Amino acid sequence: MQISSSKTAAILLISICTTAIIYTLVKRTFAEPVSVHAQQLPIEPGSIDDLVQNATANGEVFVSVPIEVAHEDVAGFDEAMNYYSIVVAETLSKQTLAVSAYDTETWFKFAITEILSTKQPHVCVSGACSLPATLSAPSQNELWLSKAGGAIVRNGVTINLEWKDFPDFTIGQKYLLFIDLNQSTRVGVPAIGPVGVFMVDDSGTIASVFDEETSLKSEIASRFGNSLGQIRNTINPSPASSCSSVQRQTCLDNGGNWNSETCFCRPLVDPCIQKPWLCD
Amino acid sequence: MNLTNKNSHYILGLCLVFLYSIVARAVDCPRCAKDKVPMPGHGSAVDGSGRLNVNVQIAYNGTGSWSDPATGLTNGNIWDGVQNASRDWNNATTTAGQPTNYHFNLNQGTPSSNVDVRIVQGTPGGGALAMTRATRNSDGSWGPPYTITLPTAARNWSRAFLQSVIAHELGHTIGLAHAYRNVAICGQTIMNHTSAGGGRVTATVQSQDVAMANKHYSNHSECTGRYAQNSPTISSGGFIDSKPFRYSPKCYHFYEQIPVYQFCDCNSLGAPSGWKIVGYVYKLEDSVCF
Questions:
Q1: Cβ contact (<8 Å) for A71 and B136?
Q2: Are B266 and A272 inside 8 Å of each other by CB?
Q3: Residue B236 pLDDT exceeds 60
Q4: Does the pLDDT at position A269 exceed 60?
Q5: Cβ contacts (< 8 Å) between B134 and chain A: which residues?
Q6: Each residue of A41-79: pLDDT tens digit?
Q7: Distance separating alpha carbons of residues B200 and A104, to the nearest angstrom
Q8: Mutate which: B164, B181, B182, vs A, most A CBs within 10 A
Q9: Which residues of A are less than 8 Å from B112 in CB distance?
Q10: Min Cα–Cα distance to chain A from B244, Å
């Protein structure tokens, strides 16, 4: 019986293929296990990982990179009052998180001292400004504010994305804040950046955290004498005083300073001090 | 010499113009950053103007990509925003008709090492609209490549708003700092922030923006703004002192003495009503420790 050359070629091809398949299967079955490396994503230029990699290469353990942040601004106090909630609050804690491959964000928890006025938010709406899962929801008299930038540690390198114009809130410091605040979640943002942040001291005097001269800062100085009390009285005028109007007028006529909350006069000159026996 | 009312008004007007020009000269509008070096660019501008070519690239793969997963194409809104903002800068001039020394060129094909400005998708945080940062040079100055972060929401911003935000951020890359709304002195500048509620204060690049970018290019050491503020970079090394010297400081505390008054009716004694001091309270004013 003669076998044609084409049949011979086909048998040969099938044999080779069968051998190859068997060889491959045997090799895969008995081969040493190969270590599988997790596929590493390439480091994107300008990312936090890129900063860490460069720092490590240069033997640095702390790198601070300034950030220039675009935000909203106001032409003065009335505009600020129309668009933002005004709150007096004291910083309790802070936590910084990496929120993307390029960005960090710092969350500050505040204890609310008083709410001077509230406005509907326009930034923290529709799920924006949602609190990270690692942070606890604020209690009744607390709020959370997030701010761009902050320092995180990655692979032993501290990367600080520093907002030069807007220093971090100081723990224990009381602030007057013009903020976009979601009342229901009590989470907000300083939408006008450092322009809307003022420190409040024990005497109720306020001072901007921002070095630059801004319309709001100038107006708060010229219109309210940097006094939280005067701002409060403008936003929420106090009811008529229960003090004696005669005492008040006498005090003012003599050049004294009248405190309508305590009904107390601080005279310009003590009339009894020269003859104290008259007052005993 | 008698001055008519009309003449005196003219003179007063001229004086005001003169004073305004002094103020405007005294205040950089907007400021430029002395610690940022001018962008060297990559080659000559593609428009043949002889200006420096600045490669702008929108991130198109990896984290921060602006490519739409469905189409694989760069988000159209971002693309148009970068194109239009670049055109704003490329076409803007000073009042004397002088353009900037730069030509922004959206160049998706240039290798990573030639990118001067990279636009990525990220989370600026804290309700911010956008963020720009520079790269530190070995001599401590700052410069390209720049990273501009836009939030995901930017894909839905209006065309005009996105264009102005990107033009503002590109201003940072050629040395300009923020202008806060002191419009009375500075007038409009692209380096203003957006208005309350998120509207745009200044829609496009102004002549004074170009003038300040040119000042930065010519001599950035004369700029009055700063990008960084003694940003520290600590190298590893050093040692921990196992026996640190500690001292107990001697402190002096200074108090303000505040008298406390009580109202007393002295009329019965033939003297007017008044106040008497009933004591003092002391308020800590200052502490000095040595």
A1: no
A2: yes
A3: no
A4: yes
A5: 65-66
A6: 789 999 999 999 999 999 999 999 999 999 999 989 999
A7: 26
A8: B181
A9: 45
A10: 23
Q: Looking at the complex, does the CB of residue A211 fall below 8 Å from at least one CB of chain B? A: no
For residues B174 and B101, membership in a common domain is answered with yes
* A114-123, A214-223, B129-138, B256-265, range with the lowest pLDDT: B256-265
C-alpha distance from residue A20 to each of A25, A26, A201 (Å): 9, 10, 84
Put simply, the answer to whether A44 touches B261 (Cβ < 8 Å) is no
Domain boundaries, chain A: 65-235, 245-279
Please report the DSSP string for B11-47 in residue order: HHHHHHHHHHHHHHHHS-SS-BBTTBPPP--SSB-TT
Contact at CB, A71 and B165, closer than 8 angstroms: no
Instruction: Give the residue, B15 or A134, on which the prediction is more confident.
Output: A134
What is chain B's Cα-based Rg? 29
What's the Rg (C-alpha) of chain A?
A: 34
Number of domains in chain B: 2
Strands B52-58 and B102-106: parallel
Out of A24-28, A46-50, A153-157, B168-172, least confident range: A24-28
Q: Which two tokens stand for residue B16?
A: 């005001």
Among B184, B201, B222, the domain-final residue is B222
**Residue A111 and residue A141 in contact, taking contact as beta carbons nearer than 8 Å:** yes
- Are B144 and B280 part of one and the same domain? no
When CB atoms are compared, the residue of B122, B165, B198 closest to A122 is: B198
> Nearest C-alpha of chain A: how many angstroms from B285?
12
> Domain for residue B12, yes or no?
no
Q: Nearest Cβ partner of B276 from A99, A247, A272?
A: A272
Residue B16 lies in a domain: no
For residue range A176-209, what is the model confidence (pLDDT) as tens digits? 999 999 999 999 999 999 999 999 999 999 999 9
Residue-wise pLDDT for B7-54, tens only, equals 555 554 544 444 444 444 456 889 999 999 999 999 999 999 999 999
Residue B239 lies in a domain: no
Domain identity same for B189 and B255: no
We report the CATH number of the domain holding residue B78 as 3.40.390.10
Q: For B227, which residue in chain A has the nearest alpha carbon?
A: A66
Residues B155 and B256 occupy one common structural domain: no
- Could you tell me whether strands A157-162 and A150-154 are parallel, antiparallel, or unpaired per DSSP bridges? antiparallel
Host domain of residue B273: 251-289
CB-CB under 8 Å, A214 with B182:
yes
Question: Residue A261 half-sphere exposure, CB side, CA atoms within 13 Å?
Answer: 4
Decide: A228 and A176 in contact? Cβ < 8 Å: yes
Same domain, B127 and B195: yes
Question: How much of chain A exceeds pLDDT 90, in percent?
Answer: 66
Do residues B283 and B191 both lie within one domain? no
Does B137 reside within a domain? yes
